[in-house]
Structures are given as structure tokens and as C-alpha cells.
Write a structure and sequence with these properties.
mainly alpha, Serine Threonine Protein Phosphatase 5, Tetratricopeptide repeat, 71% helix
Length: 202
């Protein structure tokens, strides 16, 4: 299977408003390569575009897939759980919680890139997904990306203390990494600056 060709077609279909077809192509790729980050991101975007509509892939309902996911988790089969959680989300694309459960299962299965792709797409509609995407991006050393996701959470809820704290800590880490502290007159100046309340923080 030419994964890039499949995913290029999926992205084109998504841009044309053919979310069902895009989701089908991404699902095929993920059956073959469950850790494919771009496929996970595009699938989540496709299912979000479908919203509350039942996709062509999901006419049978999500019950059996949800049961299979729970059983796989109990039996400690992370790949099977991730696959079942994906099926449950496909069958009920309007359920953000099912999407987050799939992303969490991907992370448990060791597919951190795919989990970040899924959480990143879901973050456009869900604060918790944005914060989880931020945490994953940070864990993967993507500080700029993590800041974007935490800011996305704060755009929805400016008083989210977890997102405020995480963004503040990441901003400090970024300043140290880029050696911006050299621009400060002293280390004390930098610490004072980092400790200033951010907008919306009390």
C-alpha cells in the first residue's frame, strides 16, 4: 500500500467535503499502520467534519466496538484496544469522548505520534484534548507546538488553571532553551518576569 498516496487522496477528499471517503481511506491506512500520525490526524478531522452524522462506516452502531475495546484493555492488548476505540469513534463521529478514548489508547499502545495527531485534531473542539495534545507535544520535545495547544485551550477557557500553569512553565523552558535569559539584566529579572501573572490568571 502506498501510504502517502492514500493519505494525499484522503486530505484532498476532506478539503472537498467528502469526509466519509477521507475517513474510509484513513481507516485503511491505520489498519495497515496503526501508528501513522498523519492518518490519525486526518481521520479525526474527517470524523469531526462529519459531526453528529453517522458515517458510512458506522451504520451498525458503536456498541460492539466499545465492548471490544473494554475487553482488550482488560486483557492488556493495547493494539486491539486502539483498533476497537477507533471503530467506536468512526461509528459515532459526534462523540468527542470516543475520539479522546481512541487517542489515549494509541498512546498506551506506544503510538505517541499518532496519539498527538488525533489529540491535535480533536483539540479544535475540546479543551481536554487540547491540554492532552500540549502534554504529548511537550513530552516529544515540541515546545512551540505544545504552547499552541495550551493557548488553544485558553482561547476557550481563559481561566483554565492547568493550561495557564503549563503554558507558563513551557514559556520559561522555551526562554531558557533559546537563551533569551541573556537579554535580561540579571537572573533575578528573568525570574520576576516569569512569575508575572499571565492574562486571565489570578
Amino acid at each position: 500500500m502506498d501510504l502517502k498516496k492514500h493519505l494525499d487522496r484522503a486530505e484532498q477528499a476532506l478539503h472537498r467535503g467528502q469526509a466519509d471517503f477521507s475517513a474510509e481511506l484513513c481507516d485503511q491506512v491505520l489498519d495497515f499502520a496503526p501508528g501513522e500520525a498523519r492518518a490519525a490526524e486526518l481521520l479525526a478531522k474527517s470524523l469531526l467534519q462529519l459531526g453528529g452524522k453517522k458515517s458510512l462506516l458506522g451504520k451498525l452502531g458503536a456498541g460492539p466496538a466499545g465492548f471490544a475495546a473494554g475487553f482488550s484493555k482488560i486483557t492488556k492488548n493495547p493494539d486491539a484496544e486502539a483498533r476497537a476505540r477507533r471503530r467506536a469513534f468512526i461509528k459515532d463521529p459526534g462523540d468527542i469522548r470516543k475520539g479522546c478514548s481512541w487517542a489515549e489508547a494509541l498512546e498506551r499502545a506506544g503510538y505517541a505520534g499518532a496519539a498527538l495527531g488525533a489529540f491535535g485534531a480533536l483539540s479544535e473542539s475540546d479543551v481536554m484534548a487540547a491540554k492532552q495534545a500540549g502534554a504529548l507535544a511537550h513530552a516529544q520535545g515540541e515546545v512551540e507546538l505544545a504552547l499552541e495547544y495550551y493557548q488553544r485551550a485558553l482561547d476557550v477557557d481563559p481561566r483554565d488553571t492547568d493550561a495557564l500553569r503549563a503554558r507558563k512553565n513551557l514559556a520559561a523552558e522555551q526562554a531558557l532553551r533559546t537563551k533569551r535569559y541573556d537579554e535580561a539584566d540579571s537572573a533575578l529579572d528573568l525570574l520576576v518576569e516569569m512569575d508575572k501573572p499571565t492574562e486571565g490568571e489570578e
